[in-house]
């Protein structure tokens, strides 16, 4: 599988959540998780994988999708990725190692993920790493 066509989602793009309609042309491959830090931004989460915000990484739960190349532009727009300016991008799309619950047994694959690019100062961490659970506990 080509990592350029795989996307790990962990927030509002998850099945059943507010932005999942943006995934209608994608194929859900199943549950997955990454080693990262998840933060509460109010209506959506932020994922961090390095730097001061990502101390003590833990599992962040989500879903793995196969994406058609034509979908990336719309998803990048949704996540406020500015291809001309890293500083102006709310999220950056980067490759990450994903632990995928493949039907034939767990697999490690490389997929794209949207990581938060701005300050997380004062934002509470979602310690259990499950945004869907976090929403249901509000």
How would you portray this structure in words?
This protein is mainly β. It has a single domain, classed as Gamma-glutamyl cyclotransferase-like (Hypothetical upf0131 protein ytfp, Roll). The protein is 9% helix and 37% strand. The protein is built from two helices and six strands. Strands 1, 2, 3, 4, 5 and 6 form a six-stranded antiparallel beta sheet that branches. The chain is globular, with a radius of gyration of 14 Å. The model has no long low-confidence stretch (mean pLDDT 93).
Any descriptors?
Hypothetical upf0131 protein ytfp; 6-stranded antiparallel sheet; 2 helices; 37% strand; mainly beta; 6 strands; 138 residues; 9% helix
Q: Helix share of residues?
A: under 10%
CATH topology: Hypothetical upf0131 protein ytfp
The number of distinct structural domains comes to 1
Total number of beta strands? 6
- How widely separated are the two ends? 37 Å
SSE topology:
Layout: E1 6-9, E2 27-40, E3 45-48, E4 58-66, H1 72-78, E5 91-100, E6 107-116, H2 131-136
Antiparallel strand pairs: 1-4, 2-3, 2-4, 2-5, 5-6
Provide a quick synopsis of the model.
The chain is mostly beta strands.
């Amino acid at each position: 599988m080509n990592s350029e066509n795989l996307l790990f989602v962990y927030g509002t793009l998850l099945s059943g959540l507010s932005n999942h309609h943006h995934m209608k042309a994608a194929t859900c491959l199943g549950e997955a998780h990454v080693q990262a830090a998840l933060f509460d931004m109010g209506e959506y989460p932020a994922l961090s994988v390095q730097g001061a915000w990502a101390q003590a990484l833990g599992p962040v739960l989500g879903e793995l999708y196969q994406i058609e190349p034509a979908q990336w532009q719309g998803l990048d727009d949704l996540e406020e990725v500015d291809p001309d300016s890293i500083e102006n991008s709310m999220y950056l799309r980067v490759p990450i190692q994903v632990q995928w619950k493949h039907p034939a047994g767990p697999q490690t694959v490389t997929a794209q993920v949207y990581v938060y690019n701005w300050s997380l100062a004062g934002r509470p961490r979602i310690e259990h790493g499950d945004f869907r659970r976090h929403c249901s506990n509000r």
